[in-house]
Amino acid sequence: MGSKGRGYRQLEFGGFEILVGKADADNDRLTFGIAEPRDFWFHVAGPAGSHVVVRNPDGLEELPRPVLERAAELAAWHSKARGARGKVEVHVCRVADVRKPRGFAPGQVQLKRWEAVRVYPRGLEDA
Q: What is the pLDDT of residues 62-111, one digit of tens each?
């Protein structure tokens, strides 16, 4: 997993590329500069955390369940909800459904539509 000099971590899972933002400004760059509109976007519901993007070069309508859950686990782990005792809610949508209204702080976004998935936070070493 290479990430030196980039504002995100990169890993492969189930044949999909997963990108995990490192800091607020990096999250913005990942979501609005690197990700494609049809890629899948993940963020823990509520607390601050990393933006997680799953690349979707084939334009799939939905991700395989194990990939969806792994990306959600990473979003939960790379957030303030990491220490939660139970499952954490993570919002999932297309990058095209993520907006950044004028005046929003770095890393802060608004979603047009999303689905929610509940997972236990799991980090990179837990793969």
A: 999 999 999 999 999 999 999 999 999 999 999 999 999 999 999 999 99
**CB-CB contact of 41 with 90 (8 Å):** no
In whole angstroms, what is the distance from residue 104 CA to residue 101 CA?
6
Cβ neighbour number for residue 77 with a 10 Å cutoff: 23
The string of DSSP codes covering 46-73 is SS-B--EEE--TT--SS--HHHHHHHHH
pLDDT at 1: 46
- Six-digit token string for 32: 């609005």
Assess contact for 54 and 63: CB atoms under 8 A: yes
Phi, psi (degrees; rounded to nearest 5) at 22: -100, -40
pLDDT above 60 (res 2): no
In Å, the largest CA–CA distance within the chain is 38
Nearest alpha-carbon partner for 96 in 22, 35, 52: 35
